[in-house]
Known about the structure:
Elements: E1 7-12, H1 19-27, E2 33-35, H2 39-48, H3 51-54, H4 64-81, E3 84-88, H5 94-106, E4 111-116, H6 120-129, H7 137-149, H8 151-164, E5 166-168, H9 175-187, E6 206-214, E7 220-225, E8 235-237, H10 244-256, E9 265-272, E10 281-290, H11 293-297, E11 306-312, H12 314-320, H13 323-338, E12 342-345, E13 348-349
Parallel strand pairs: 1-3, 1-4, 2-3, 4-5, 6-10, 9-12
Antiparallel strand pairs: 6-8, 7-11, 9-10, 12-13
Helix pairs in contact: 1-9, 4-5, 12-13
Amino acid sequence: MGRGGDVIVWINGTFGAGKTSTARELTGILPESTLYDPELIGDVLSQLLPGKRLAEVSDYQDLPSWRRLVADTAAAMLSEVGGVLVVPMTLLRQEYRDEIFGALAARRIPVRHVLLAPAETILRERIAAREEPGAPADVDVRVRQWAYDHIPAYQQALGWLTADAHVIDNSALGARETAERIAEAVRTDAAPVCDIVQTPEPTRETVAAGVLLFDDEDRVLLVDPTYKPGWEFPGGVVEPGEAPARAGVREVAEEVGLTLERLPGLLVVDWEPPRPPGYGGLRLLFDGGRLAEPEIGRLRLPGPELRAWRFVTEQEAGRLLPPQRYERLRWALRARERGRPLYLEAGRPTP
C-alpha cells in the first residue's frame, strides 16, 4: 500500500522522446525520488518465460505478467523507500495504461502522468542520432528502425494521451530543462493526479453480483472497465451487510445510470477458486430483464470507471470477455432459457 506522501511520476512518450535521460535528471531535482525503469521487468521475463510463450507476443508489454509485475514492483519499491517513484515508460495502448494505473490506484498510489511530445522532425533527428553504448553498429540500426516503426502508433495514440497526461513539448529543451518543467508541474499540480477509479484490492474471498440486461434482440449488455482487462457485466463486490441482488441493483445505477424497478432474479452462482494474487469467492449473475428503447437511451457512463458499453450476442461476448467470465455468461444464458438457476464451480456446472 502507498504511504501518505508516496506518488509516481510516469513519464510517457514514444521511443526517442527523451524519457530516460529526463527521468535521471528529475530524480536529482525532486526530493526523496527514485528511478524505476519497467524495461527491467521485460528483461527479467525474457530470461524466465519459455521461448514458446515469448514467441507468441511481439512486445513484452503484451504479456499480462509484465503489466501485473510493473504495478506490483512499483508498489513494493514505494513500500521500501517511499517518496517519489520516477517511471520513464512508453505506454501507447490505453487499455494497458488503464490496467497498470488502475492496479496502482487500487493500492491508493497516485500517479501523475506526463507526456513528452517533441515535434516529429525533432523526434526523428533524435532517433537518427541515437546510439546504444557498446552495441555493434547493426544493433544500433535495428534499434533506430524499431523506434521509427513506432511513430505511427504514437501518433494514433495522441488523442487519448494528450487528454490524459500533462503535455510538455520538449522540442527545444534539454533533459535538465525538461525535468525542471516536470518538477514545477508536479509542485504546482499542473500535472494532476490521474483520474482513475480506485478499487481496493481484496484481502480475502469476496461475493460479487453482476446483472445481465438485454435489448429487444436478446443481446446482453457488457461494459468496459478502465481498471482491469477485458469486458464485464454491470455489477461489483457486495458490501458487508448488503443483499447480493440489491448490490446488483446499486451497481447498475452507479455504473450505467439506470434504476431497476424490481429486484433481478438469480441465474447463476459460481464459485471462483483462488488464483494468486486473487482470492476468488462467489460470483452471482442476475437477470435484470429486457430494456426498452427509452431505457437504453438513458444509459450513461461514470467518468473514469468505465470506458464504453455495448450490447453483444453470445458469440461476440466470447471475443470480449475473459474465458472464465464468458463461461459464467454462457451458463447464465442457459439458465435463463431453462427458467431455473444453476450452481457452478470455476465456471462449470456441478454433476
